[in-house]
Amino acid sequence: MATTDGTLALGSGAEAPVRPMGVFARPGATPGWRGWVTSVDHKRIGIMYGAAALFFFLIGGFEALLIRLQLAAPEGKVLSADLYNQVYTMHGTTMIFLVVMPIGASFMNYLLPLQIGARDVAFPRLNALSFWVFLAGGIVLNSAWLLGGGADGGWFNYAPNNGVMFSPTHGIDFWNMGLIITGISSLLGAVNLITTVLNMRAPGMTLMRMPVFTWMSLVTQFMLLFAIPVLTSAQFLLLFDRLFGARFFDVSMGADPLLWQHLFWIFGHPEVYIMILPAFGVISEMIPVFARKPIFGYPFMVFSGIAIGFMGWGVWAHHMFASGLGPISVAAFATATMFIAVPTGVKILNWLATMWGGKLKFDTPLLYSVGLVTMFTIGGLSGVTHAVAPSDTQQTDTYYIVAHFHYVLFGGALFGFVGAWYFWWPKAFGYKLSEFHGKVNFWILLIGFNLTFGPMHILGLQGMPRRTYTYRDGYGFNFWNLVSTIGAVMIGASFLYFFWIIWSSWRRSKVEAVVLSGDPWDARGIEWMIPCPTPAHNFDVTPTVHSLDDFWHRKYGEDENGNLVRIAATEDVSQKGDATDVHLPSPSYWPIVLAFGMPFIAWGLIFNLWFCVLGAICVVGAIYGWVIEPSTDPEGDHGHPDDHPTGTDDSSAQVEVSAPEEAALVD
Ligand code: HEM
Ligand SMILES: [Cu+2]
């Protein structure tokens, strides 16, 4: 158990075995920041993903504001043309790879084990590695700002602009290596989460009883598994071109500049679904709770997600209509693109049907969910206009496109995730975010959002080109650009407000010390059966699942007239979270040590190969240490008072440990 001064004492009166703890000795359950750094607990890793993503969101958001300030009036002087190119490239890259994707990863890490009734993910240390490698990649990407300037070729960095000839600084090298590293992180995560969902479901949790969020995460992870290697291969070609004088994208040597575009978009189109499906998943969990009805058409929800997962691979060239593919390919890809609107439409109809006739409770999470559905629908409709090749040829590279993808990614993905923060916040932190302020915040964000991106449709149709650092007076662009900038400032303010809400709600929870039940929303999934915040060991006993919305069916049944009635009090069917003999895998330093080496390899390739040697020593050493380190230390103190046989692999997440470690992991 944790004593009051935060040190670790063992329960049952036993003397704590004193064990030297060098940096590389296997740490026991450590309190304070070291507990976080060495943690292999999926919940902490999920929280760290979210915190890191919010940090990068501040950077990406600041870059967005710079763009909008520059464009607020004609002939803006905030940024030079060169710096403007860097800022929008880094903004787009940051938002996609370091904000939206990791927020998705944050929810998956936290929720998947809870939703399928597991103690942890399949490979807890690998999970920690994914997080630290992601952070390393984000650091490499952003280190460009300190080491000579960011990438300037746009988030898709088209060849030949991405070559040394057109981009001679190292910006694109940082971009390239940062994203190769975050790609490694995504792959590790994909392997881990797919294994988890397929192998670690509680008894009775059949595939067709899995929550929609679990399903959408599974589809997302499969897409990542196949999409990321395509990007990484293209990036290696670029790396060889830029650093070692290869000629893969050198047109003067007969290379086809479209090679990069094809490879990029074979990754890039699935990527947009990788970003949006998890958000579709979270709102599919929230809408039924606040409509107080089961999700409408559950099988359609699942299969439309799977269909999107497959169809997303067939439409990449709709990003290349203007590149001269020829009429046959253009016609084929335009048709295919219109078809992909079908499964998406199915989802929208199912959400509406879930709300239809429900007893809607407009709590904050529902507001954001409805925000997603409406804003995404607008973005989806302008997407269909791009699918029509002739109109896309006009729209492409205008602000119409910028409007479209912000409606989809910000109005879609981010709205859903912010709502999901309100919804699952109590599960993770044990207190609720203020409902009142949450609602006010929603309206400020919604208005700011539409002021920012709505006018961009008009600007685009008026012909304002995308990626232009300024415009002349008298083109008719002034008014709507100013409106857009005012909206952007509102969005910025709404997120500062959000951070204040987190802080003030936390403060209030300290003062009022409300004891939160495990189930503050009268929710449906089994993750609500356990206390808030989730205890370190998740479930006292692995639950047996009988249906979709299993927890709901434990609370509610039907009387003889078919009316919904409560059959049990929440407290009676909730778990107390006080199991004591649960074995958790020990924390480990190796994941962070391994990840720490990666930026050095990247910087070494750019500046001095000796850094590579240093980085490689770190990586190889960590792999070696990792391999010989048992997942639960059989000799050392992992908080266990008496002898017992221990598992030596990560699957011991499923075996038992005693209370002291559990308590120590919590604080
Ligand atoms: C905070 C509010 C935001 C504002 C005001 C904003 C503003 C902008 C603007 C004006 C551009 C166009 C730059 C240009 O083409 O010259 C842009 C590009 C972009 N934004 Fe945002 N943005 C915001 C949030 C987001 C979010 C949440 C995402 C999520 C993925 C995102 C993704 C992108 C991407 C991918 C690009 C394209 C970058 C490129 O072309 O290389 N933005 N943003
Ligand atoms: Cu696409």
N-end to C-end Cα span: 10 Å
Q: How much strand content do the residues show?
A: under 5%
Largest sheet: 2 strands, antiparallel
Mean pLDDT: 90
The poorly predicted ranges are 1-23, 636-667
What does this structure look like?
Helix content is 61%, strand content 1%. Helix 3 (81-116) runs parallel beside helix 5, helix 6 (212-244) runs antiparallel to helix 7 (258-291) and helix 7 (258-291) packs parallel to helix 9 (327-355). The chain has 19 helices and two strands. The protein has 667 residues and is mainly α. The protein binds protoporphyrin IX containing FE and copper (II) ion (CU). Copper (II) ion is lined by residues 269, 272, 315, 318-319. Residues 61, 64, 67-68, 88-89, 91-92, 95-96, 100, 154-155, 402, 406, 409-410, 414, 452, 466-467, 488, 491 line the site of protoporphyrin IX containing FE.
Which descriptors apply to this entry?
667 residues, mainly alpha, 19 helices, 2 strands, globular, disordered N terminus, binds protoporphyrin IX containing FE, binds copper (II) ion
State the gist of this model.
This protein has 667 residues and is mostly helical.
Layout: helices, strands, pairs:
Blueprint: H1 32-37, H2 42-71, H3 81-116, H4 124-143, H5 171-199, H6 212-244, H7 258-291, H8 298-311, H9 327-355, H10 364-387, H11 389-395, H12 399-429, H13 435-461, H14 478-512, H15 550-555, E1 556-558, E2 564-566, H16 570-573, H17 590-606, H18 609-628, H19 659-666
Antiparallel strand pairs: 1-2
Protoporphyrin IX containing FE is lined by residues 61, 64, 67-68, 88-89, 91-92, 95-96, 100, 154-155, 402, 406, 409-410, 414, 452, 466-467, 488, 491.
